[in-house]
Amino acid sequence: STSLALFYQARRKERLNAHFEPRPIELRSDEVLSGVTGLIGNTPLIRINSLSDALGVNILGKAEFLNPGGSVKDRVALRMIDDAETAGLLHPHTGSRIFEGTVGSTGISIATIARARGYDVTIIMPDDVAEEKVKALHALGADVERVRPASIVDKKQYVVSLLYILAKIPPQNCFRMLQNNAQLNLESTLRLIKPHLVQSPSSVVVSTSGNEENPEDLMNKPRGFFADQFENRSNHDAHYDGTGPEIWRQTNGSLNAFVSGAGTGGTVAGIGRFLKSMNEEVMVAISDPEGSGLYNKIKHGVMFDAKESEGTKRRHQVDTVVEGIGINRLTDNISLALPIVDDAFRITDAEAVAMSRYLVQHDGLFLGSSSACNLVACVKIAQKMDWKEGQTIVTILCDSGNRHYSKMIYSITNVARNDEYLEKAGIPIDSDLIPAMISSL
Ligand code: PMP
């Protein structure tokens, strides 16, 4: 009876794991979208009324927080997965695994799509990102490893090499590489890598002839797909083919500037390059948080100077308020953007916090920190340049404030306000900052 129980257990498991072949049932309506990925993209463009009215320009935000995974990164995750499937690197519903390093948004987007396509996901992220993102990843069933790196975005040899090792390098070489890499925490890395050393779903092919694959061969197969958003061209393409054309269509091609932060650089590269291809006159500007090197790279040709290294250290070695944008190394996607970027604005954490609160108070818009940075940069463009009434600046509203409760703390009343975090982080809280900025025009 034990063997019978095991038999039924195996049958149940089989049924649970079975994926159903698509059945061609006509929907009779174009209004019904297909599954969760049907919800990705085609986001509305909204006028930020408080800022636009005060400044006499149109500041428009692309409402990317409405994507099903909650951020602009859904587009990128979908394109990376689609392209990997087309290239034969991923196979839906066979248990292939996707690996990615992320500050959270991309991981959540990948995990969302992965659930729908039958992939497993391993996410490596810094341990100082907002807790909300980790909870979302766990809820989506991703394996999450939190590391204490100098930065996930800066030390390529740290997280990126770890992911590369996990996804691609044969196990027998892994150990040697790990041992030779002083930056990697061997213990946590081994814990992470272990399940994949034994078997990888994508590589475990149980032959129907009854002969299991040679274990030697098995060990030499890649254990999954490393999405590599920083270097993956699909990231740029998602925006060049999707977000950019949507913005062009939604503004009837009449926009004067486009503002975006850059984490991987995919957004600014893809949208910026598309808009420039339609009209060279569209100004492309980067909103860059404190401690990021892009502002200097664009203004002075170098990522950061000695004077700034202190700030850089601060931003990337302790908790940061602004998540998702800012970088100190040239990724492939950033490199694509640099030739078309006209200007950059350095945004302080205090400005980002003040803008987040201002938008809640005046527009009922509850946005994440990178969106707030973008909107501060929009105001600075209007301040800096000789803007004529009625000109249009477009930016990205990357994600919602609900990913940032533990850090940004929006409430404009004293009840739910949590200024402690900001005080501890040494960020001044000044509710007059944005009104003063606007009225100084
Ligand atoms: N905002 C948020 C919240 C993000 O997570 C990211 C991605 N890291 C960005 C903006 C920046 O986008 P990109 O990677 O395309 O530069």
Automatic annotation (TrEMBL):
Pfam families recorded: PALP
Keyword NADP in record: no
Cofactor(s) of this protein: pyridoxal 5'-phosphate
UniProt-listed GO biological process terms: cysteine biosynthetic process from serine
Membrane-topology annotation of the record: Single-pass membrane protein
Classification lineage: Eukaryota, Fungi, Dikarya, Basidiomycota, Agaricomycotina
Protein name in the entry: cysteine synthase
EC number of this enzyme: 2.5.1.47
Keyword Transferase found: yes
Locations listed in the record: Mitochondrion outer membrane
Catalytic reaction annotation: O-acetyl-L-serine + hydrogen sulfide = L-cysteine + acetate
Residue ranges annotated for the Tryptophan synthase beta chain-like PALP domain, each copy included: 36-158, 217-399
Gene Ontology terms for molecular function: cysteine synthase activity
Similarity remark: Belongs to the cysteine synthase/cystathionine beta-synthase family.
One GO cellular component, as annotated: mitochondrial outer membrane
Entries under Gene3D superfamilies matching the protein: 3.40.50.1100
Enzyme class: transferase
